[in-house]
Structures are given as C-alpha cells and as structure tokens.
Amino acid sequence: MKWLPADCSFGDTVRVRIGSVYHYGIFVSEDEIIAFGLPPVPEYRDRPERLAVVATDADTFSCGSIIEKAVFSFSERRKKRTPAKIVEIARSRIGETGYNIIHNNCEHFVNECVFGVARCTVEEEARRRWLSRPICDVYIAEIGEFARGGSVYPPERDREIKECGNDALRAAKYADWALLALAAKRSLAVDFEKTVFKKTRWGRWCAEGFDFSLSHAGGAVAVAVSGGSVGVDIESVPNFEKKKAAERTDKLRERFFTENERAAYPDGPLPFLSCWTKKEAEFKRRARGNFDPASLDATETDAVSYLVGDEDETVLSVSADAVGAVRVFTVRGDAVRLATPKKIN
Amino acid sequence: MKREEIIEKLREILAAAGDGTVPDLSEDSNLATDLGLSSVSMLYMVIAIEEEFGIRFDDVGASDFVLLSDVVDYIEEKLK
C-alpha cells in the first residue's frame, strides 16, 4: 500500500498526519469522512464523540493537513471490498465506541471496513521492534549468593562440578550455573531444564538456541546471555592489586599487549584490567582455540568495559554482536536490578 | 509477581524503549512530565508491557494512566 496526496473518490481509504501519528478514515465525499474518533488535537479533546466512530467533513478530518489516499497493490486490490460495500460498512458502524489505541484504533477501523481484518501497522511494527530487539544481558552476583550446591542441569555439567576438587572453584561453578539458569529464563524466556547443552572441543559449554558466557573473580560471578554471540570477563581490582601484579603492569603490557593496545591503554591497574578483560571477553565470544593474549588486539574489537560493584571493585568487559544493547543487572537474593555501571575505556 | 518486581521490570522496559538510560522511578512518577513519554513512546511502552507481562491492554485508554502507580495497579490487576 502506498499513500499519495491525490483527489479522493467514494470509498477511498484516507489519512492525515497529526504530529507524529496518522489519523485514518473512509472517504465518502468532501462532506463525509468516516473515522474511528476525531483527530488527536487539543481542540477536540473535550468532544464526547472524540472516541467514537464519527462522520465529519474533510476540514474537521484533516485539521489543515494534507489528506493522502491509499493506493493499493495488486494483491490488496484483489482482497479489498467494493467502494459501495466499504462505505456501507463504515456507515453502519457510526456511533460505535470501544476505542483502544493499541487494539481498536482508527487504522484498525479502516482496515476492517476495507479488508474485513482489523489491523494496525503501527502496533505491528512496534511489536516487531520490541520482540526483535537485540538482547545482551549481563548478570552479576556474589558467589556466596548462588553457590547453594545440590544438583544442576544438565547431568554432565552437574558431574563436572561435583568432580571439581577445589572447594572455591566448585562454589564458583555452582554459582555461575545457577545464575545462568536465572539469566536465561529472565532475559530470553528459555526453558532451561529443556535446553540442549554441549561441550565444544575447546572445552566451552554452549547451548542450543542462545549464547552465554561465564566468568568469576574476587567473590563475584558474571553471566552474559544473548541471542547473538557473547563473551564476558570480570577481574577484581583489589585482587589484582594484592597480587602486586599492579606494580608490574609495564612488564605485562610489554609481553601481552599489542602496540595499538599499549598506545590506547596507559600504564596502570585499571587500564590494564580493562584491556585484559576485553581480550578475554573477545576470546570467549569467538569460542575457539586457546587463549593467546598477545595475538588478540582489544582495540580491534567492539568490546566494552565497565566498573561494577558497590565500591567499583570489579572490571567487567563484554564482547558481543549486540554490544550496543548491553544491560547489566545486579542480583541480590531474589532482587534483580538493572544497574547503571560506569563505562571505562 | 510483587509490586517491586513490576516496577523493576517497568524500569527495564522504559530504558529499552528510550535511549537506554535507566530512569529513576517511583510510584508517584508522572508518565508525561517526569518520564517525558510522548504518545508514540507510550504506545511502544504499552506494547512492551503486553509482551513482557503476557497481558492485554484491552479495556483502558492512554489517558487512564497518569502516574506510574496507575500502570502498576493495572498490571497487578491483570496478573491476578
């Protein structure tokens, strides 16, 4: 369907632009345009027929804007009713109420008169946009909150966790898997217990239907879930400083950073951790091979870094197809809260 | 679903429906003056709420909602 500012005829579908929206009607004559509601302008706000099917003249319908008429495609012309039938149906509905901006508005009305199907392109487009929006959500929690033990799904992962001999690592693995279950259900409406999980030849767990990435450091655990590919990595700033690694960042940079990275990330713990976690996040997103930090250039990725935690004690980096859509949630007990983390270079 | 959970979900919807900025919300927030929702963003928000909460706004008009608490009340009622 196209819209043209042309002379209108009996039974035409017409519309006018009012601000950011369109108002639709069925043209009968210059003295009779039938529409569901009056145009959404302040002067009609208090009129009782504002939200009913009404017949008005062209001036009232247009509010001074240009009236456009619908030019139907070949297939639409085959489906549409005759002008006489369209007008007959529109007239029969004059006085009808029940206006609803989402489900029963002026566009629904004209489509029902013309095709017998009530539909609204604005509603359909908004719904399509919402349902197809990129999702890249990161959840962060304290390991202690989620390291509850018990059994996890799938059994292969459960066995792997139980066989882990290091208590702290086992707790972290319990925590990241429990947080993954929450994240996948909450952000992607995934039926976690029916998801097929596999381990790749590079030892990375992956799921059918969505991508995820896990990381833990300094008592915190992070999980990223996305419809596209995603990698996440966190590092604890206090732990890094405690290990005295912070004092050797110049040597670490020399060994592991590319020339571009050394130029982009000045010496110091925070820039170092930001660059390092970006590399790890990018490596996890690619999900293949072995981690070789010197061959992976953070400046050539779209990865983003944030400072998270009550005292900005954790550096978080995310690499993803939908990196512009990254949202970070903090999880405490049953409370999940959308956070506003500080973005860092 | 608890009232606080509904408000938190609305924060997420408003952030996603807008420019990504996470809004400060309270039950007294006025949708038009405090949150600056235009008629188009209100439409987008309502559709997002329908999809996220699995409900249908079939018996209200946009002007029925002035404060955020009106939206929360409506969602609570529909979820019962």
CATH homology group of chain B: ACP-like
What is the CATH top level name of the largest domain in chain A?
Answer: Alpha Beta
Main beta sheet of chain A:
6 strands, antiparallel
The CATH topology of chain B is given as: Non-ribosomal Peptide Synthetase Peptidyl Carrier Protein, Chain A
What is the number of beta strands of chain A? 17
- Summing up helix and strand content along with how strands pair, one would put the structural category of chain B as mainly alpha
Strand content of chain A: 25-35%
The tally of beta strands of chain B, per DSSP, is 0
The number of helices of chain B is: 3
- Termini distance of chain B? 9 Å
Mean pLDDT of chain A: 93
Q: State the helicity of chain A in percent bands.
A: 25-40%
Overall structural class of chain A, as computed from helix and strand content, comes to alpha+beta
The tally of structural domains of chain A comes to 2
What's the story with the biggest beta sheet of chain B? none
Overall mean pLDDT score of chain B? Answer: 86
Q: Rg of chain B, please?
A: 11 Å
Q: Supply the CATH architecture of chain B.
A: Orthogonal Bundle
Question: How is the secondary structure organized here?
Answer:
The complex is a heterodimer of chains A (345) and B (80).
Chain A: E1 2-4, E2 12-18, E3 21-29, E4 32-36, E5 53-56, H1 58-62, E6 68-71, H2 74-79, H3 83-92, H4 106-115, H5 121-131, E7 136-142, H6 143-146, H7 155-162, H8 167-188, E8 197-199, E9 205-207, E10 211-217, E11 220-226, E12 230-236, H9 237-242, H10 249-256, H11 259-264, H12 269-286, E13 304-308, E14 314-320, E15 326-332, E16 335-338, E17 342-344
Helix pairs in contact in A: 3-4
Chain B: H1 3-17, H2 39-53, H3 68-79
